[in-house]
Amino acid sequence: MIKSPNVVRQLKHVSRITSQISSKRLLSTSPILRHQDKKTSTSQDEMDHFNQLASTWWDVNGPQRILHKMNLLRMDFIQSTLRENIPLNEGVLNKEEEIYVPGYSLDLLPEQIRNAIVHEQESKRDQVISQMPKYKILDIGCGGGILTESLARLPTVESVKGIDLSTDVLEAAKLHKALDPALTDKISYQLMPIEDISKSEKYDIITMFEMLEHVNFPSEVLGSALSHLKPNGWLFISTINRDFISWFTTIFMGEYVLNIVPKGTHHLEKYINESEVQDWFKEKPQFEVVKSEGCMYLPFKGWVYSGNASVGNYFMAIRRVK
Fold first, then answer.
1. DSSP assignment letter at 79
2. Do the domain assignments include residue 156?
3. In 3D, which of 57, 69, 50 has the Cα closest to residue 295?
4. Cα–Cα distance for residue pair 109/182, rounded to 1 Å
5. CB of 139 closer than 8 Å to CB of 207
6. Is 209 annotated as a binding residue?
7. Residue 139 in marked binding region
8. Is position 74 annotated in a ligand binding site?
9. Per-residue pLDDT of the chain (322 residues; tens, 9 = 90+)
10. Where are the alpha helices (DSSP H) in the chain?
């Protein structure tokens, strides 16, 4: 339990910060970028912080245990989104062979009929997946490889490339990967910013989880990532809304009361509201925000969907449509 003077100090700190932070974190290109060598850079303090965590990255009960728990919901979000958006009747010429997709909720139907429709749809999804080329994935800000390894183990994935700016954390990722020979040819790790990736490299899926709130220019990271997305490819991101509730749950409770997140991991002024990301993509007609889900951590249950993407943490799925 933290001492009361620290509580008061933290409350004063957030009050001061919230009064100074702009109501919007600008995602557009800043003039400062003209003087930056790497537009997706993070501060040295951020890098030092994550380097210090490298040795315990794969300790499921250690400082990164919150990420290990969140990874279950990350994977559910990615896999369910991909599966839900598989076209069931693409290329079907005979109307009689089409899978029935009602324009209303299946919950309105009797259970027996509902189950029959769901079974037919899921069988068709399995068939389509078995015939699809395997995914090539880029994991930006891969850290110690928690998500990278989970993605690589999926039978639908051909390869995953993980990139990060932390030398020590990437070393932890490489060491853990070496423990499983099955991952040798499926995962590659590189120390580099996204803009150093060859322009010719294109991916079916790009992931950026718990990463945008740690970079100086999030719009540049997003723009660079999108340039490497194949037609009909997917970008999956997660970050945190910039509000009092987020400060209270992720910083005050997470870092100072429950001690489930290492102190100094988060900075309220770098959080990005879900509405800001939505507005940014509205100016990009070649991309569509397909899904956005709020999520929250319950100490005795783990990570769950909250039903409100405008408060706290959130996941977002974006698809290239042009």
1. H
2. yes
3. 69
4. 45
5. yes
6. yes
7. no
8. yes
9. 444 556 556 556 555 655 545 556 656 443 333 334 455 556 555 555 555 667 788 999 988 888 999 999 999 999 999 999 999 998 888 888 899 898 888 999 999 999 999 999 999 999 999 999 999 999 999 999 999 999 999 999 999 999 999 899 999 999 999 999 999 999 999 999 999 999 999 999 999 999 999 898 999 999 999 999 999 999 999 999 999 989 998 898 888 988 877 888 888 999 999 999 999 999 999 999 999 999 999 988 999 999 999 999 999 999 999 8
10. 4-20, 44-53, 65-84, 111-131, 146-152, 167-177, 218-226, 244-246, 274-282
Question: Of 257, 268, 270, nearest to 297 (Cα)?
Answer: 257
Q: Judge whether 10 lies within some domain.
A: no
Beta bridge partners of 188: 161
Residue type, 278: Q
Q: Is 298 inside any structural domain?
A: yes
* Residue 302 labelled as part of a binding site: no
Query: How far apart (Å, rounded) are the C-alpha atoms in residues 267 and 313?
Result: 14
Instruction: Confirm or deny that 164 is annotated as ligand binding.
Output: yes
Phi, psi of 204 (to 5 degrees): -80, -35
Q: What is the dihedral of CA 57, 59, 65, 70, to 10 degrees?
A: 70
**Does the annotation place 90 within a ligand binding site?**
no
Q: What CATH number is associated with residue 66?
A: 3.40.50.150
Domain that holds residue 309: 36-85+133-320
Nearest in space to 223 (alpha carbons), one of 25, 26, 39? 39
Reduced to 3 states (helix: H, G, I; strand: E, B; else coil), residue 319 is strand
Q: Is residue 150 part of a domain?
A: yes
Number of domains in the chain: 1
Cα–Cα distance, 76 to 184 (Å, whole number):
24
Structure tokens at 205: 């899926």
d(CA 39, CA 159): 27
User: Is 220 assigned to a binding site?
Assistant: no
Residues in Cβ contact with 38 at an 8 Å cutoff, skipping those fewer than 6 apart: 193, 195
Determine the Cα–Cα distance for residues 253 and 322; give it in Å rounded to an integer. 43
